[in-house]
Amino acid sequence: MRDEDLVVMGFVRGAFGIKGWVKIHADTEYADGLFDYPVWWLGKNGSWKPYTFENGAVQPKALAAKLEGVEGRDAAELLRGSQIAVPRSELPAPADDEYYWNDLMGLTVVNQQGETLGKVDNLLETGANDVLVVKGDDGQQRLIPFVEQYVLDVVPAEGRILVDWGLDY
């Protein structure tokens, strides 16, 4: 499976218990949304391997999952740090003016004056709204609320996001 065919949905935080369960951090809208996918692709550095999802549980601070073929704590611990992805073809199409975070990563952020602020490096979920983490070529990081007031246009096909945000903010 190629990187561009997959959408990263979280990562393995470590082992959970002694029976081969893994502790998961999921970057999904709903905590247990990852449980909807029967096959997870786990990987590091672009090398992916499929695992069949067997069972899952929502824990107070994380998710726990049992994957087929992962038996015992040592096997689960070997997966620590692996990204969890699902094929893009299995995801529902986003509604108009909605985007998967994965599709925003790496887009160039430009303001109305034509100044390049940097590229989207990450997104944060704050509760009130999502926030774009934009890193400039100079290493400066800007946090831009992903709301209509500041994000004027998102054009993934052109690789850019137009914002109402100054270089000095």
TrEMBL record:
Residues 101-165 form the Ribosome maturation factor RimM PRC barrel domain. It is found in: Cytoplasm. Residues 9-89 form the RimM N-terminal domain. Transmembrane segments: none annotated. Keywords: Chaperone, Cytoplasm, Ribosome biogenesis, rRNA processing. It holds the Pfam family RimM. InterPro entries: PRC_barrel-like_sf, PRC_RimM, RimM, RimM_N, RimM_N_sf, Transl_B-barrel_sf. GO terms for biological process: ribosomal small subunit biogenesis; rRNA processing. One of its GO terms (cellular component) is ribosome. One of its GO terms (molecular function) is ribosome binding. Belongs to the RimM family. The PRC barrel domain binds ribosomal protein uS19. Binds ribosomal protein uS19. An accessory protein needed during the final step in the assembly of 30S ribosomal subunit, possibly for assembly of the head region. Essential for efficient processing of 16S rRNA. May be needed both before and after RbfA during the maturation of 16S rRNA. It has affinity for free ribosomal 30S subunits but not for 70S ribosomes. This is Ribosome maturation factor RimM. It comes from Chromobacterium alticapitis. The lineage of its organism: Bacteria, Pseudomonadati, Pseudomonadota, Betaproteobacteria, Neisseriales.
